[in-house]
Amino acid sequence: MLIHLRKIATPLKPKLSSSLNKLYSDRPLKHSPLLKLPFQHSVQTLTRPQLEALVLSRFSQGKFFDLLQNVVASPSVLFTASQNLITPLPSNRLNAPESLLSLDMVSSCFSVEDMARELYENRFDVGACCVRLESSEEKGEFLVLPNLKLKVLLEAMKMVLEIVYDERFVTFSYGGRVGMGRHTAIRYLKNSVQNPSWWFTVAFRRRKFDSVHVNKLCLLVQEKIKDDILILMLKKLFELEAVQIELGGCYLGRGFPQESGLCSILSNIYFNGFDKEIQQIRLQKNEENPKFSLNGTVSFHNPVKIYAVRYLDEILVITSGSKMQIMELKSQVLRYLEGNLELEVDRMNTAIHSAVSEKISFLGMELQAVPPSVLHPPMSEKAIRARKKYLRQKEVRAIELRNARERNRKKLGLKILSHVFKKLKRTDGLKSEFQIEKEVTEIFRNWADEVVRDFFESLEDNTEWHRPLSAGDFLSLKHIRNQLPVDLVNAYDRFQDQVNKHLNPLKAKKEKAREDEEKRLVEEERYAKRTVEDLTRLCIKVEAPIELVRKAVKMIGFTNKMGRPQPISSLIALEDTDIIKWYAGVGRRWLDFFCCCHNYKMVKTIVTYHLRFSCILTLAEKHESTKREAMKHYSKDLKVFDLNGKEEMHFPTEREVKMLGERNLADPYPVDGAFSLFLIRLVTDEDSYPCIAHFCNRTDSILYRVRLLQKTLNVNPSNGVEWVRGMGVIHESLNQRCLPLCADHISDLYMGKINLQDLDCTLSLDMD
Ligand SMILES: [Zn+2]
């Protein structure tokens, strides 16, 4: 039974058994015994409202009390936290079916009840849950990581703090929050920021939070939460380095093992005062702006506005005002960060830039202010001609279709008539078992209606009929009319009136001319509006830093010095499928990350051309064949066969890449965690170890040795010339360590569906 359950829980096979589903379904709050805390009888996953109710029950007189002992130390909360560690965040993987964790599986790692009791009695040993990974090199840095049990505690604390704080954060605080990721921030910049003129980003000196910062953080937490045990726990976690926050180090929000969800929320709490300060400055500025009531008249007045976006430790401040204003703003910002928050700002790299003339890099992308026509260029002459041609062709096709329909109708009508006629001749009268007259009448009436309508709609048909009917008849000659009966002449005149009324092509022509004129006017107006907008408005263009991406492509070895695809020799030791998956993981992450960029096409080219062909060449080199043979074997879509001989495709197809566009993606992980990690399969005679993905424990695992890119290339990541600026680095202590992973989890890791944060790296092995 246990093995069966484990299989269910692996993310790749998320088939839910209905009984399990029922056992752990979300029961409404009223009937659950949850509020009997902290040690209720049944342990079950909590829904967000249930957890909220639990946290709010500890609220009185503006503060929360004793959350650690009463909420975090509840087996259900701990169990829910465990569940969160394997269930992908809803924001990250929208379509992933919910995977399910059973209490048995958690119990096989540690006892939730015992852990809850330890926490409640304040004798939880944090130190025993920390593992120190030494670097493989002498004098290398070491890394302290929490084990799975401690990770559960961190997650539980994060969940509780999230409920206390999430509504208290300002709207421009992104990162580590549900639905507030990089793409949301970019969308805000694109849609809401008007006429940016000056801006700056804050660069922090690379530094870990020390006791000063931790004490400050604890004071901030204490403003809202009165819980000495929680504060002691936080201090202990920082002291033992189980939790680390390093500003300016490019590893927050990248899925590296030393970070956890708790880090994100703690940095948001730390910066919350700063956010509020900026919010205050913004409001003040808005109030200073003179108010106009213009009643719809066009105005070129643009009130000065201030905008800010903070994504964890990345801060961007924008103004639509003068340089003086941004300078003042910058000194205010730095005063708060250096004074109140005691952070070290790298003043050299915190420079003010003109939004129009310089690009600024933020969130791994490049921003610049441009006129709207750059983002939505008007159609070129060529495009307009092509469009006209297309419309004409469409019209011709429609006419052809109509003619064909008419022809067929005539044929069918004649057939019916001749059939009826024959029947009539053979028998006396038409006798049928079915009464079909009604249907036939209906059909003919429809046809007739359609024909008449088509006739009146067609300018040519009207002209054709109008000409003979209105052409100089002798009835219109004055001296003849006099000799004719008055009734006849009147009837003729009336008839002529009707002909003119219904068939006169002049009228239809006029109508068409009027419509064309209207269209022209609308077009002109649009042109005028666009021109004025171009002169008066600025919006933000977001681009992928294509130079940096190219540099990364070259550094990793996808291309040679000439920029042509080349094989990557370090990957040759991998299985075919794993080679393809590794490439797919890098490519898909790049495609996800930059999907909101104006120059997305360039990223697409890099993935679909450079990466695809580098992969084909690597496969060719591995099998000592030519590129042509490899292409023939794997096809351009890089097809492989699984154990059952079923075709598999992991790399996005050319068509798929072409169709990709901006999607409502939640926070994407940057690609640095995917490409700086090679996992080489190890062959050993030893017994297999349990899979180290959270709560997986599958024993049919295989050992993979980690080889980090910077070690393979022998470059120093802190050297800006050798390494790509802004790309994070996996900690060197993981190099050469061995990870036991089951087939599902190694696949997920290659494809970038999970990352090192989803593994218990404390169980990695140091083998020679
Ligand atoms: Zn596994």
Automatic annotation (TrEMBL):
Residues 541-648 form the Domain X domain. GO terms for cellular component: mitochondrion. GO terms for molecular function: RNA-directed DNA polymerase activity. Pfam families: Intron_maturas2, RVT_1. One of its GO terms (biological process) is homing of group II introns. Residues 144-367 form the Reverse transcriptase domain. InterPro entries: DNA/RNA_pol_sf, Domain_X, RT_dom. SUPFAM superfamilies: DNA/RNA polymerases. This is Nuclear intron maturase 3, mitochondrial. The lineage of its organism: Eukaryota, Viridiplantae, Streptophyta, Embryophyta, Tracheophyta.
